[in-house]
Recover the amino acids of this structure.
């Protein structure tokens, strides 16, 4: 059995679970700087006291003000305080998807506010307190775990990935529906970019690793990473959807059919597959975990643009990625344009 996840101070490990963690929460048109500000203000029917707590520079000051005005608290406060806490904690995570993904990613491990000062909201420091805040967080987590996009993927871990284009952070995710592993290569500080440059790159072992000239995949992968590094910040999602979703062995079979004269679409269909079997819905979970809800998307594929829009990701710009035209893939590129609707300049596939 896993040890409980303990939290208390807002800037320590798992501090995002704390009511003192700084994140805006809007309630009835009023923006509160922390859930602690909101909770403490609700003790008082007096709007002047509420406003003073709202304007408190820190949650510690908000807490102190509630103690200062204790005698002015509403008489039914102890009857409603848990429901008030439930409402603001739920709002905190619903309104801040990045935090919601982090909460969901704690799995089923027990959450405990490790406070030696409080054995009602916390565990009392000795582990035997009521831990009401921890229980509320676990209830919110359970709800989110059954809700898209939070139930689409799980974050596994992250590490540094030095490349010829600079150092990326490599983030690993598991897609729940298929148990496939996917990567998000993050360059720079994407939190400072309103709509970061991104690429959805489906795995292509032959093109990415074996330098095949039969497709444009490896060329696009290199150019996308270069573009992201030159941009200063961005993300490449490396998606385990080999062969437009048919898998590596079937891709070899499709190549054999292409050797005999079929084009890339005909080969898939002769094997009993659709022209493109890929699914991008789970990308909403990965991008949400990274705090991204709008992007500049590097692609020539209109299906990717539509897939992002269906996943509630706003594509503010499509950035063409035309690379790798050569004698071995010219027919392949022309088929992608004529049968799959890929958007190439006429001079590129001439």
């Amino acid at each position: 059995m896993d040890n409980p996840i303990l939290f208390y101070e807002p800037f320590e490990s798992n501090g995002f679970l704390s009511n003192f963690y700084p994140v805006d929460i809007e309630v009835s048109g009023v923006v509160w700087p922390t859930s602690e500000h909101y909770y403490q203000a609700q003790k008082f029917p007096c709007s002047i006291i509420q406003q003073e707590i709202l304007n408190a520079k820190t949650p510690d000051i908000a807490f102190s003000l509630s103690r200062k005005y204790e005698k002015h608290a509403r008489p039914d406060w102890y009857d409603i305080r848990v429901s008030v806490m439930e409402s603001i904690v739920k709002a905190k995570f619903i309104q801040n998807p990045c935090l919601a993904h982090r909460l969901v990613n704690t799995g089923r491990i027990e959450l405990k506010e490790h406070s030696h000062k409080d054995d009602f909201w916390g565990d009392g420091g000795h582990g035997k307190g009521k831990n009401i805040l921890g229980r509320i967080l676990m209830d919110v987590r359970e709800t989110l775990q059954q809700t898209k996009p939070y139930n689409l993927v799980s974050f596994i871990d992250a590490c540094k990935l030095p490349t010829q284009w600079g150092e990326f952070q490599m983030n690993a995710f598991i897609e729940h529906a298929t148990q496939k592993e996917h990567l998000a290569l993050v360059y720079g500080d994407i939190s400072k970019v309103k709509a970061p440059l991104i690429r959805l790159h489906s795995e292509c072992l032959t093109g990415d690793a074996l330098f095949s000239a039969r497709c444009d995949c490896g060329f696009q992968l290199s150019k996308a990473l270069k573009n992201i590094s030159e941009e200063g910040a961005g993300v490449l999602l490396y998606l385990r959807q080999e062969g437009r979703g048919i898998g590596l062995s079937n891709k070899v079979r499709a190549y054999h059919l292409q050797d005999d004269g079929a084009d890339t679409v005909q080969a898939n269909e002769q094997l009993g597959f659709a022209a493109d079997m890929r699914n991008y819905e789970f990308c909403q979970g990965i991008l949400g975990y990274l705090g991204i809800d709008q992007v500049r998307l590097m692609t020539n594929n209109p299906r990717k643009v539509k897939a992002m829009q269906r996943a509630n990701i706003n594509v503010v710009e499509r950035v063409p990625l035309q690379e790798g035209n050569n004698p071995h893939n010219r027919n392949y590129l022309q088929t992608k344009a004529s049968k799959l609707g890929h958007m190439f300049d006429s001079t590129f596939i001439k």
Summary: The first helix runs from residue 35 to 41.
